[in-house]
Amino acid sequence: MIRLAGLLFALIPGVVAAYSLTPQQIAPGVYMFEGKTEHFTRANKGDIANTGFLVTDDGVLVFDTGPSRSYGQSMRLAIGLVTDKPIHSVYISHHHPDHFLGNQAFEDVPIYALEHTIETIKRDGDAVTDSLYRLVGTPMAGTEPVAPGEVVSLGRQQVGGRDIELIAAGGHGGHGAADLMLLDHTSGVLFAGDLVFHQRAPTTPNADLDEWLQALEAIEALDFRVLVPGHGPSSRGPEPIKQTRDYLQWLEEHLRQAAAEGLDAAEVMYLDLPERFRGMGVLEAEYRRSVAHLYPEMERETLKAVGER
Ligand SMILES: [Zn+2]
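Above: inputs. Below: predicted complex with zinc ion.
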């Protein structure tokens, strides 16, 4: 019902305000659109994740498409102001709705993702779209989940004179069960997706912390010069990787210790957080979500360990 109302809005021209997206050039021919380091609100229209694009001789490669149909359309318009090259293809980093719901604006070109991402969008796409309609409202008008149609070929490849590499994180990812990155060896830009956060607390609902920490090791070893995280500003060095690692290591130890002390989840949610993380966007909200998702398992493990003694 909520989506039907949205569709009616979408049919009235001008009712759905476009996003004002400004491409930031981060290397020759490589741009990002920087999302806000906030949670979804009506005010930010769900524009909370980074997206980007690379101009090649054969056309434009797009990395992630944002939270709504209107965002995808705005992205296409903004790309058109930078280059007259056609869109060549789209790569989707993972299945979270802030990263793929602009796919509708790119249905005329191949959209690539890891197989698990495609399956998850097919299975959960409707549910996550509904939840964004509730959080963001009218800017979602007309948005329907479009699963990527193509399984991405990993590895190094030449596209329109650019030497790019498509990389899947670890065995099962880390942040989610499947995370795709794009490294452009020509410019040294790495689009890391949500494996890396910067000045914004990491999201952990689908995370395996140990695998994520291993993935961060692998990312740090990659030959990049500019890092575009999934959320937060780009960086010319590995700072966002270190920040993400520092937070995840702290989170794991902090939750284990709380479990060992026998605290219940409600108590853990309201513990003071370290000073060094205070500058991160949505810190409290993400921390509480992480407690809700991760703490029950830590409590079970702790009880089991005690029982085995
Ligand atoms: Zn995200």
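The two ends are 54 Å apart (CA to CA).
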